[in-house]
Write a structure and sequence with these properties.
The radius of gyration is 16 Å and the shape is elongated. 9% of the residues lie in helices and 38% in strands. It has 1 helix and 8 strands; from the N terminus they run E-E-E-E-H-E-E-E-E. The chain has 2 domains: 1-31, no CATH class; 34-107, 2,3-Dihydroxybiphenyl 1,2-Dioxygenase, domain 1, CATH 3.10.180. It is mostly beta strands. It has one helix at residues 49-58, and strands at residues 2-7, 11-16, 25-28, 42-46, 67-70, 73-76, 85-90, 96-101. The strands form 2 sheets. The protein has a 5-stranded mixed β-sheet, with helices on one face. Strands 1-2-3 form a 3-stranded antiparallel β-sheet, with no helix packed on it.
Length: 108
C-alpha cells in the first residue's frame, strides 16, 4: 500500500506499507528532524535472512555476513532460532540497518 499526500502546514509525505505487513515506512518533506545518517538500530525483519541478504547483495548493497550471537560473541552463519540472526548494512545516507531473521511464524 502507498499513500502520497500533501498536508497543509506539514508538507508532503509518502507512506509505504509492504503487502501483508502491519508496519509502514514514512518519508517526506518537513517530517525528518534528524540529520541524514544519524539513525541506527533500524530493523528489517525477514523470514529468510539468507535469501534477503542475497537479494540485497545482488542489487549492489554492501551487506555484512549473516551472523548470530553465541555465548556473547558474533559467529558467522544463520540459526533457526527466531530473532537471533542478523546482517548489517547502511543506506545511501549512512543510516545503520540490520536484517533480522524471524522464520515465518504462520507455519508453527
Amino acid at each position: 500500500m502507498e499513500v502520497d499526500r500533501q498536508v497543509a502546514g506539514v508538507g508532503r509525505f509518502v507512506q509505504l506499507t509492504p503487502p501483508g505487513s502491519a508496519c509502514s515506512i514514512v518519508i517526506g518533506l518537513d517530517i525528518e528532524t534528524m540529520p541524514p545518517g544519524s539513525l541506527r538500530g533500524l530493523l528489517l525483519v525477514v523470514s529468510d535472512i539468507t535469501a534477503a541478504r542475497a537479494e540485497l547483495v545482488e542489487r549492489g548493497v554492501e551487506v555484512g555476513e549473516v551472523a548470530h550471537l553465541d555465548a556473547g560473541s558474533w559467529v558467522t552463519g544463520a540459526v533457526d532460532d527466531p530473532y537471533e540472526s542478523f546482517a548489517q548494512f547502511s543506506d545511501p545516507d549512512g543510516n545503520g540497518w540490520s536484517l533480522q531473521g524471524v522464520p515465518d511464524r504462520s507455519r508453527s
